[in-house]
Amino acid sequence: MSSRDSILAAVRANAPKRIGAPAAIPRFEQRAGSLVADFEEAAVRMGGKVAHCAQAGGLEGFIRSLFPQAKVLCSAVPEANGTRALNGVIDPADLADVDLAIVRAAFGVAETGSIWLSETELKVNSLAFLAQHLVALLDPRAIVENLHHAYADPRFATARYAVLVTGPSATADIEGVLIHGAQGVRSLTVVLVQ
Description:
Elements: H1 3-13, H2 35-45, E1 49-52, H3 59-66, E2 73-75, E3 100-104, E4 107-109, E5 114-118, H4 119-122, H5 127-130, E6 133-138, E7 143-144, H6 147-151, H7 155-158, E8 162-165, E9 170-172, E10 178-180, E11 187-192
Parallel strand pairs: 1-11, 2-3, 3-6, 4-7, 6-11
Antiparallel strand pairs: 4-5, 5-8, 9-10
């Protein structure tokens, strides 16, 4: 038996016995306004943008109108085509020159303006971080009230990779100068569309 195995065996043997089920964590319901309005306010406060697209049929043109300068587009959604396919990406670093990434968020969090992405939504995990700009499609009906509701989502237990993205990458120095896009995407635009 290795040292590691003997240490772990001793920890398991001396672990306190659980008495009953753990206490339920409350969801802290505070709903007073609109989830969509709260989400928009929080997303903008965190440096993101929120856009509304009335019709899914004109979605691709709408997205391209938001980023007319984008040359290399990667889309992880069937509603919009990209100029580079994700299915051929083997090395995540191959996405380093992507101008615009388009994904569909599984849900949003009104409290923080965050969107939830997993390997299912991203196809290649680095897509949400190496692209210059990230557009996330979000069904307004998929916005939950707060992080307690978000963490109660069963997909947290089944996803191999999951991330809550709140606004674009940002950093600030000691003088309080805020820089967006320092280590990741320069902009995050959430497009509310069913």
